[in-house]
Amino acid sequence: MNRMVVAVLALIGFFDALYLWAHNAGLTGPIVCGVGDCETVQSSIYAKIGGVPVSAIGVLGYIALLVLCLVGVQPKHRGSRLIGGLLLGGATLGIGFSGWLTYLEAAVIHAWCQYCVGSAIIMTVIFCFTLPEIGRLRAS
User: Fold this and answer.
1) 45-67 pLDDT, tens per residue?
2) Which of 138, 104, 129 is nearest to 3 (CA)?
């Protein structure tokens, strides 16, 4: 059940990050931001790492978690330590990355993007739902 919840959350996070990536690629008009100052965050020097938009990293991360979950719910992979470890590791990386980006918004950029905050919340919940994988890793 936890893996299905993570799959749904990863899909939501994927669309959140995809919107930002499309904006960064110039495929949309001005960013629609009802709360916060998304444009300031998205145009900051922290919106890219080595020329790669942070949103593209988010898209790839959410796709990876989604694929792992979909494979992990298949009957022959339900008890897989490898899938469990990769899910837990991916969620840990995701929450760490989200935490760093949230810190940058608060302490360095002094602006908030509602989509970034939403992604951080999604990743936090994903992390919480991957914690049962620790039991799978210990049991096997």
Assistant:
1) 999 999 999 999 999 999 999 99
2) 129
The predicted model scores a pTM of 0.92
First to last CA, the chain: 19
Task: Pick the closest to residue 56 from 31, 90, 32, 20 (CA basis).
Answer: 20
pLDDT digits (tens, 9 = 90+) for 3-35: 999 999 999 999 999 999 999 898 988 888 888
Q: C-alpha distances in angstroms, 15 versus 3, 20, 45, 78, 98?
A: 19, 9, 23, 26, 16
* 57, 97 Cβ separation under 8 angstroms: yes
Phi, psi of 27 (to 5 degrees): -90, -10
According to DSSP, residue 108 is labeled I
Helical axes 2-24 vs 114-130, angle rounded to 10°: 160
Q: Which one-letter amino acid corresponds to residue 80?
A: S
The number of angstroms, rounded, from the C-alpha of 119 to the middle of its chain's C-alpha atoms is 6
Q: Please give the DSSP secondary-structure letter assigned to residue 76.
A: G
Tokens representing residue 4 in the block: 């299905």
Distance CA 107, CA 25 (A): 26
